[in-house]
Amino acid sequence: MIGSTRNVRVFAYTEPADLRRSYDGLFAIATEEMKHDVLAGDLFLFVNKRRNRAKVLLFDGTGLCIYMKRMDKGHFAAPWRRPGEHFEMTTSELALFLEGSLLLEKFSLSPAKITDKDLAVGSQM
User: Fold this and answer.
1) How far apart are CA 79 and CA 107, in angstroms?
2) Are 93 and 104 in contact (CB under 8 A)?
3) Which of 28, 71, 88, 93 has its CA 20 to 30 A from that of 104?
4) What span, in angstroms and rounded, lies between the C-alpha atoms of 47 and 118?
């Protein structure tokens, strides 16, 4: 069965991050500055000032994990409008981000979330 990628949220830290930080340092940013619970299983994206390095912090149920990537050429997109703003993306957008897609800076690539109001719940036929 194909799983839903909407169940896992991705929160991007929109300030340049000191990527010398490891598990505890990134955990502190996510909990204290971003005000999120890392242990809930969401993903947290951190990018350095030059935007050529990125780290993703996640809790897999048994411990903290860090995924790291360094761009050999070019830089990562900056889809957030201003540093310091709250920015959330889907796991599909995160995958495109880590592949180096610059389309994320220009377009919203994921459809809006469907809410109960969008569904025909309780409609009469």
Assistant:
1) 8
2) yes
3) 28
4) 35
Give 64's strand partners: 59
Tens digit of each residue's pLDDT (9 = 90 or more) over 7-63: 789 999 999 999 999 999 999 999 999 999 999 999 999 999 999 999 999 999 999
Per-residue CA distances from 35 to 4, 63, 69, 71, 116 (Å): 25, 20, 25, 29, 26
Please state the separation of Cα 111 from the chain's center in Å.
16
- Closest to 17 in 3D by CA, of 67, 54, 59, 58: 54
**pLDDT (0 to 100) of residue 7:** 79
Taking the C-alpha atoms of residue 82 and residue 24, their distance in angstroms, rounded to an integer, is: 26
- Which of 81, 22, 73, 64 is CA-nearest to residue 46? 22
What is the spatial distance between Cα 63 and Cα 41, in angstroms, rounded to a whole number?
10
Q: Which of 101, 64, 106 is nearest to 55 (CA)?
A: 64
